[in-house]
Write a sequence for this structure.
């Protein structure tokens, strides 16, 4: 148990704060005020003096590809706004700097080809890399760019530019890192997230399962609550475990585990940047077989998968970015009665806003994608830009909104995401479609699973901040961090 002394409790509904009080918590908030001090005298309790800091519910990042996030932290970064020519110069510089490294394949991360005149190819990379094997993974993870030497090592053919499943397969090959080493990187990234005030994540990684995270927890590399998603290829194995979404397995660890089963994750279309998000109207320069993106899963297969998930008490988290994909996924939710979320929901038809709400499907969105994609949208989806990132429309319709990062596509940066959800921009650029902005209360509560306040009996996942976010804006809001992060009554990060 922990006694947090001299806290001021922040109410996320209106930004009001309480008088100084004490809070006693373990997995739940046990007591407040004099009652907390009374109970603390009769138990072994760690006491932390918050010295008037504001106490609020912990933050969740609802969409993280954890291993890809950890791997990306070790790759050389490519400018996301650079032209093809500039990217090639950046790659040449990295190859030169790593001339003596023994890495079998140099890996870069972050390019965005959405506004390039054509897709890149291996020969362009060959011209600046020579025989040194190099693979670049795009910022949205939906494409990979290989030179000829890397293609030989990976045993693949083609022109060096891979999209969707071909790209995912390459990334899986490149992820074959010693498990102990990778888990160390995951632990470092998770610790950094805890310092920002994150107390829970949904892991959307392709090849991770509950047992992987239980081992990380046993090794002290799990400072967060983690809900572990499962992809169709592993659905049968997950169903045999008999765990419902949100349910933790029974372990030998004292107290409840932080690891729980997550949702079934299905990818129905691609991405806007790769011109593979499945849309009703075609892209100006074409995209996918019919110029309007791709559908990665047949509708009947999606329905069957979602029915299996519902039978096994799993929620569904369905990736759909284009408006045609969103509409098809809503059809599947309606046909199956499954519960869960649409991940991204970046482009949304007017008639589907009300369907979202009526079906009680959650919208899991990533505000920082707005910053990354706004310029490309204004070119590729110019006539439909007003239907992108419809956060206000969603909330006003009664849709449950959940914020996340999609890391490593965007950084794990909860306060930066909250800032963009409210201001619809960063820096000095004008606000992009400001009519779709959230209030600060709406944005923060979409990051706390709508827990508004630390109360007796509430979750024991809390953070202490030095400043009231309702007094901040712009860079100051985005720079907010947690001075103390507590998960289930255990301190996972502290700057005190």
């Amino acid at each position: 148990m922990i006694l947090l002394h001299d806290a001021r409790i922040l109410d996320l509904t209106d930004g009001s704060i309480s008088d100084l009080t004490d809070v006693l918590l373990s997995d739940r908030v046990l007591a407040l005020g004099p009652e907390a001090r009374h109970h603390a005298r009769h138990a072994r309790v760690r006491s932390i003096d918050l010295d008037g800091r504001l106490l609020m519910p912990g933050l969740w990042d609802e969409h993280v590809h954890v291993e890809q996030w950890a791997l990306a932290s070790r790759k050389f970064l490519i400018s996301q706004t650079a032209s093809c020519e500039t990217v090639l110069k950046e790659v040449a510089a990295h190859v030169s700097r790593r001339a003596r490294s023994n890495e079998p394949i140099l890996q870069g991360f972050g390019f965005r080809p959405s506004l390039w005149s054509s897709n890149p190819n291996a020969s362009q990379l060959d011209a600046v890399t020579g025989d040194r094997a190099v693979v670049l993974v795009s910022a949205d993870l939906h494409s990979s760019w290989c030179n000829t030497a890397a293609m030989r090592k990976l045993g693949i053919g083609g022109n060096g530019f891979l999209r969707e499943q071909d790209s995912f397969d390459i990334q899986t090959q490149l992820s074959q890192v010693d498990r102990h080493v990778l888990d160390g990187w995951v632990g470092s990234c998770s610790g950094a997230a805890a310092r920002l005030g994150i107390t829970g994540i949904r892991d959307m990684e392709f090849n991770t399962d509950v047992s992987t995270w239980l081992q990380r927890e046993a090794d002290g590399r799990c400072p967060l609550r983690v809900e572990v998603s499962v992809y169709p290829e592993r659905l049968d194995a997950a169903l045999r475990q008999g765990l419902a979404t949100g349910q933790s397995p029974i372990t030998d660890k004292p107290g409840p585990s932080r690891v729980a089963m997550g949702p079934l994750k299905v990818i129905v279309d691609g991405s806007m940047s790769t011109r593979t998000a499945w849309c009703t109207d075609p892209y100006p320069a074409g995209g996918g077989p019919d110029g309007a993106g791709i559908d990665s899963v047949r509708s009947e297969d999606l329905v069957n998968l979602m029915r299996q998930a519902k039978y096994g008490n799993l929620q569904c988290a369905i990736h759909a970015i284009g408006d045609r994909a969103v509409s098809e996924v809503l059809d599947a939710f309606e046909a199956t009665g499954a519960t869960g979320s649409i991940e991204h929901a970046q482009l949304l038809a007017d008639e589907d806003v009300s369907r979202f709400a009526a079906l009680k499907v959650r919208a899991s969105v990533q505000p920082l994608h707005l910053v990354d994609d706004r310029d490309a949208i204004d070119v590729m989806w110019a006539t439909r830009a007003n239907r992108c990132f419809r956060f206000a429309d969603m909330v006003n319709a009664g849709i449950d909104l959940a914020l996340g990062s999609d890391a490593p596509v965007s950084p794990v940066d909860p306060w930066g995401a909250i800032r963009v959800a409210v201001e619809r921009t960063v820096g000095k650029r004008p606000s992009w479609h400001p009519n779709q902005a959230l209030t600060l209360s709406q944005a923060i509560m979409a990051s706390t699973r709508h827990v508004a306040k630390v109360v007796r009996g509430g979750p024991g996942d809390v953070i202490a901040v030095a400043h009231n976010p309702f007094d901040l804006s712009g860079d100051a809001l985005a720079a907010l961090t947690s001075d103390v992060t507590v998960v289930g009554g255990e301190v996972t990060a502290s700057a005190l």
Remarks:
- The longest strand covers residues 259-267.
- The domain at 70-174 is CATH 3.10.310.70 (Diaminopimelate Epimerase; Chain A, domain 1).
- Residues 179-196 form the longest helix (18 residues).
- The radius of gyration is 23 Å.
